[in-house]
Amino acid sequence: MNELQKKLVDLGLSEEMSQQAIDTVLGYIKTKVPDNLEPLLDAAAKGEMPEGDDLLGAVKNLFG
Description:
Largest sheet: none
Number of domains: 2
Helix content: 55-70%
Order of helices and strands: HHHH
Strand content: under 5%
Radius of gyration: 14 Å
Protein name: DUF2267 domain-containing protein
């Protein structure tokens, strides 16, 4: 279970409800950012965020 989902479960939501909440918020955020940032958001949601120079490289790749 990812960290955010665990925090939501700790607040009293079921695992299913916590995942629905995460999906809803992520879907909303995706409507507010440029399309090329969606893969970075998806990676962050899975806990796959690159660190340091890797993060800078990922952001640079988004802008060509």
